[in-house]
Structure formats: C-alpha cells, structure tokens
Amino acid sequence: MENFNRLNDLYFKKLLGDKKRKNLTLSFLNGILNKDDENYFTDITFLDKDNEPLTLDGKLSKLDIRADLNDGTQVDIEVQVCPFKLMAERSLYYWSKMYSEQLEKGAEYKKLKKAIAINLLAFDYLEDEQEWHNIYNLLNVKSHKKLTDHIEIHFLELPKFTLKDMRKIRASEAWIAYFSGKYSKEELEEIAMTTPAIKEAVEFEDTFLQDKIERRAYEQREKAIRDYYSYMNAFKEEGLQQGLEQGLQQGLQQGMQKGLYQQAIQTAKNMLKDKVDIKLISKYTNLSVEEIKKINEE
User: Fold this and answer.
1) Sheet containing strand 115-121, strands side by side
2) pLDDT tens digits, residue range 69-102?
3) How far is CA 188 from CA 14, 115, 210, 215, in A?
4) What are phi and psi of 99, to 5 degrees?
5) For 214-262, how does the pLDDT look when each residue is reduced to its tens digit (9 = 90+)?
6) Residues 267, 85: Cα–Cα separation, whole Å
7) How far apart are CA 110 and CA 66, in angstroms?
8) Helix spans in the chain (H)
C-alpha cells in the first residue's frame, strides 16, 4: 500500500504494543537506547493501557506504550503525529507520573527504578538541534555532571532523519527508517539483512493490510487525521484573514491619526506666526500647551 502511515495509532500499537510481538518492541528499545550485548533488555511486560482516548487530540495524535523491562526500568513510548508546541512539558509530566507511580504509600525511595520517556515525532520540534535523536538528562549547569541516571527523555524527529550508509546501519536507524516512510519495500528488505526485526515488521504490515477489518479501521483513523488537518487549516486561514483585515484597519486608523497630528502642528505654527495666544491655539488644535511652546521654541 502506497503512503502507508506506520505511525497510525492503531497500527503502531498492534506492531509494538502487543506481547505476541514483544521481540520487536525489545529490538526497537534496545536500538534506540543503544544497548549492547552485555546490557541488552531481554524481556518486557506491557502495562494495561488499552482504553481508547476520548478527546479529539488524544485520539488523533497521541499514543503511548507503557512497559516494565526485565531490570525494572520503566519506559513510555509516545507517538505524536500532529505538531504540538509543548511536547517537552507534556513529556516531563508523563515521565513524572510514570516515575512516581512506582512507589506505593510508605515505600522506600531506594525502590525507585530508572524511567525513560521516548517521544517519536512526525514533525520538527527542536528548532536548535540538527540531529534526529536527542537525549535529555538532569545535569549540573556548570560542571554538566549527571545528578542521577533515573531520568532520561528522548526526542526522535522523523523529518530530520536521513540514512547515510545502508551498509553500516544501526538498529535505531533501521527502525526510524521504517517508521519514516521515506524508504521503499526494496530498501527496507536491504535494511532487514542487518536488522531481522524489520523483516518481521514488514511481514506483519502485509498481514495487517490484508485483514479487511484492520484495514478499514486504519483508513478511518487516517480520514479522521486528514479531516482534523483540514479543519485546522481552515481555522488558520480564517484567522489570518481576520488578522489582515484588523491590521489594515489599525494601519488606516494610525495613518489618519498621524496625518491629523501633523495637520495640527502645521496649524499651530501658522497661528504662532499670527501671534495667537498659546492657550487659544491649544483649544483649537488639541495640542498641549507644552507641545505648542516647544514648537514655538523651534
């Protein structure tokens, strides 16, 4: 299927949020978190977060996969399709909830485990960063030493991603190449030679699209997203038009005020030449006595 959106919430969660394919989720996480053979995550337990969001924003643009890894690490994968300016604040908020929910009342802080938030974005967010993958920790502003490794927030910006060398591709790049939609099935097959999980993802994609019920649900989600963008663009255009009209009106008013002011000054000059009393000039020009005195001095 051409232009298949792999960030579609329905598809993404079935691909990486199902325990039947947890090997794919582990491949994705180990790649993004740059794990080697010694500290490779070997198991994952998905938390029950299957309730469908009720709001338009949540339904169209936000998806999360919450899970525990085999060493107790907490992870939250967020997918954001529609541009959102407050991604940092929202990610930090959800990270804090994930971190705090580890402890029951009265439990000791030493039981807290590392919490990782991963934001997969379909838009450019970090304007001052050139790299597609940026990681944030809690650091000393002077020494840049890390206070704790318990907090880790990742931003993966798909539009910034470009595959440099297909022969030396890393697992993280393979997954981002897959989700970016920039590469053909033939190129993904070449990528799958170094990252077998991508081959399995492509095979699942084919099975998913052959299921009439799943494909219909996918198409309905895509239509909802297109409608959302259409509404937003219409509101934006209407707002721009109103802004232009208001700006033009304000400009005319300012121009008129400026013209009247200049005319008042010229009238004051003429009356001063005729030696008219300053208070009388102020009365007829609406200029202050101080302004007229200044004009007279000049």
Assistant:
1) 44-46, 62-69, 74-80, 115-121, 146-157, 133-139
2) 988 999 999 998 888 889 999 999 999 999 998 8
3) 20, 31, 19, 21
4) -70, -45
5) 998 888 888 877 776 776 676 666 666 666 656 655 655 565 566 567 7
6) 53
7) 22
8) 9-16, 22-32, 56-61, 87-100, 171-180, 185-192, 196-210, 212-273, 278-285, 289-297
